[in-house]
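[Q] Does anyone have a clean structure-token version of this?
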Amino acid sequence: MKIGVISDTHGHIHPGAFDCLKGVDLILHAGDVGSDSVLVELETLAPVKAVSGNTDSFPLTSRLKEKEIITVAGIKLYLTHRFIERGLTLPPVMNDIHREKPDIVVFGHTHQQHAEQLYGIFFFNPGAVGYRRPGTRTGVGLLKLENGKISHKIFYLE
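[A] Here you go.
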């Protein structure tokens, strides 16, 4: 199972992202979607699961939750936007993660790539694929779930 992972589009998808997402079975969007048109474009490639981010507003927030918990290929994924704040402080969502016991936490918000195994959970942020902040790189993530194993890759876009 190949899963494309993006975040922080803010209404704009870097054109190079579409090549990175070709052939995936599912796309996860970790919030700050920006507009329905982003989800419509992504759905032409694969089914999409998305959460709302701190800059999303109505009507997106009426249909996107703050978190999604899904199980794919026997792997439990926790999809959220604000897991780590700038300055790397952990928000209250950590209590929920502790309760849910996912195998993977996918998050966005920081616009910075992050991939780390910690306390038996794989934490993954592909970075922003829309407009990037100074000092960050545009990225698209790929998770591969196979025989209970998790592998990942981040594609950097110029």
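[Q] Thanks! Anything notable?
[A] The beta strands are 2-6, 26-29, 48-50, 67-72, 75-80, 104-106, 114-118, 121-125, 138-146, 149-157.
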